[in-house]
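Methods, example record. To illustrate the input and output format used throughout this study, we show the complete record for ABC transporter-like protein. The sequence lines were provided to the predictor; the line carrying structure tokens was produced by it.
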Amino acid sequence: MGAVLDTGAAVTDAAPRASEPLLRVEGLGIRFGGVCALQDVSFSVMPGMVCGIIGPNGAGKTTLFNCLSRINDLHEGRIHFNGRDLRGIGAHQVAALGIARTFQNVALFDRQSVRKNVETGCYLGFGGRHFASLFMTRQGRRDRAEIDTRVDELLEFARLRDVAHVLVADLPFGVRKRVELARALAMRPRLLLLDEPAAGLNHEEMEELLGWIRQIRDRMGVAVLLIEHHMSLVMRVCDQVVVLEFGRDIASGTPQEVAANPEVIRAYLGGDE
Ligand SMILES: Nc1ncnc2c1ncn2[C@@H]1O[C@H](COP(=O)(O)OP(=O)(O)OP(=O)(O)O)[C@@H](O)[C@H]1O
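The corresponding predicted structure is encoded as:
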């Protein structure tokens, strides 16, 4: 497992200077008809940090992820990732740029094996270069070997070795979530978007997830944006937290600062904790 954890994020342009944010969201706004899903949302994330995105249902968290992964267009504001303005980037280019994602309801290739799904993540991270691995050129053989090694390491990391050849459709939800995490990491992201990764997990699985997120940050050097309703996980794993309410960012700071913020207590924590 060592190699994959030491490899770090990779397949993007030159790394940003550590003093510069990896992600900068400025005045982001998006409407769906009369619904203002996001309004004037601004925050930034430094490389290798875990940032929680919290807020009540309908606050705009998933819409924010959809803007970052270019599923939704921005109506106002800008998103800069690794120095690039995302407005000119298509959804199909996001992975090669260094942003990978998991979904609230898990989005995998159900009729393919676990191994094949993770392998697909490698291809997405390679961008256009993956075609080389289909041919028996020297570069193609090198890419193929690199992909095989990476898939092995990620299957080990996410405890998927035993089900490597099982069809995803035949797996329970919790295991499918691990496949989705492994596939996202296979893309060698600089930024990993996790949409409610703890939903439906028991206490032990949650502890395991916590350990994984820390390893992803500390050993792979990948920044994480985490949408999560489990406040205990957010408080333990996040370096910073952004709170959304009705599409607006009402607070941001360390988990402790945010938890003590009266606006946040009123809007969110008061009801749940
Ligand atoms: N495609 C869409 N068309 C119309 N309205 C939408 C669309 N997507 C999101 N919305 C609306 O935008 C608002 C924000 O929704 P979003 O799903 O981003 O919230 P959320 O914070 O992720 O909620 P949850 O915690 O329940 O997942 C909601 O009012 C939602 O109904």
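Annotations derived from this record:
The chain has two domains: 11-98+195-273, 111-187.
The CA atoms of residues 137 and 143 lie 10 Å apart.
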